Model the fold of this input.
Amino acid sequence: MQTENVKQEGSEHYKTGGTEPIDLYAAGGFLQGFAIGSIIKYAFRNRSGAMNVKDLNKIKHYCDILISYEKGSV
Done:
């Protein structure tokens, strides 16, 4: 997944104002840690029962970011 694809799957409120957070995380060298933390956050808040599809899709999105990061695409 290329950087532009990762951005396209993000929420619209992140696409205004010039610099997107994912660009800052990548430039600062902490995109991997941010993605892992986000996966943990969405999994942890749903630990008491069945996870909802919205949160599962968010976990998947952050997994896609990690895959792109490991491939050098982000």
About this structure: Residues 2 and 73 are 5 Å apart (CA to CA). The chain has one domain: 3-71.
